[in-house]
């Protein structure tokens, strides 16, 4: 694994990264039940500091930043890979997200398009579309090609957090995420009054 992907994996550990096209950070916060007026500018490092302070309190923390015509949202509560939330968020647009948790080897990935699941990856099941296992010949052609390229790039790599998941997201969004870019982004960060993944 290259140093870039090693650093990204460390930075993304325990967090959900959600890319939404054509939706502003403030709109995303509102859709997740937050009030943008209570959110403040913060860096990635400041977000992580807040996250550690609240680690045992299970308070939903969200930070969102603009990258080109996308918003990247980072949360600490699995919000961006919750299927129902992603389905609603993707109405009329594209959502790509992943959650990585190295200590338990729990790695998730979602790609939804206009309210429809295109492909998901689950820690135990692997690639799925709905309730069906999605081997390369049963997944969207475009994504099968992406997986083929990432497999060639990372031969023998089984953990998607060791490079592949970042390549999948890059190919679906056009965003080349790097540790440097994460460190430079200006996020709108704050807390949600309730966890939107809970009924």
Q: What does this protein structure show overall?
A:
The protein is globular, with a radius of gyration of 16 Å. The protein has a ten-stranded antiparallel beta sheet with strand order 2-10-3-4-1-5-6-7-8-9, sandwiched between helices. The protein has seven helices and ten strands. 32% of the residues lie in helices and 29% in strands.
Brief descriptors of the model:
32% helix; alpha+beta; 199 residues
Q: Helices and strands, in N-to-C order?
A: HEHEHEEHEEEEEHHHE
- What is the averaged pLDDT score? 93
Question: If you compute it from the alpha carbons, what radius of gyration comes out, rounded to the nearest whole angstrom?
Answer: 16 Å
Largest sheet: 10 strands, antiparallel
Please give the share of residues in helix: 25-40%
Strand order of the largest sheet: 2-10-3-4-1-5-6-7-8-9
| Oligomeric state of shown chains | single chain
Number of helices: 7
Give the amount of beta strand, in percent. 25-35%
Shape: globular
Number of strands: 10
Which SSEs are present, and which pair or pack?
Blueprint lengths: L2 H10 L2 E7 L3 H7 L8 E3 L1 H10 L7 E7 L2 E6 L7 H7 L4 E8 L4 E8 L2 E7 L3 E4 L2 E2 L7 H13 L10 H10 L5 H6 L2 E5 L8
Antiparallel strand pairs: 1-4, 1-5, 2-10, 3-4, 3-10, 5-6, 6-7, 7-8, 8-9
Helix pairs in contact: 5-6
Précis, in short:
By secondary structure, the chain is of the alpha+beta class. Helices cover 32% and strands 29% of the residues. The chain has seven helices and ten strands.
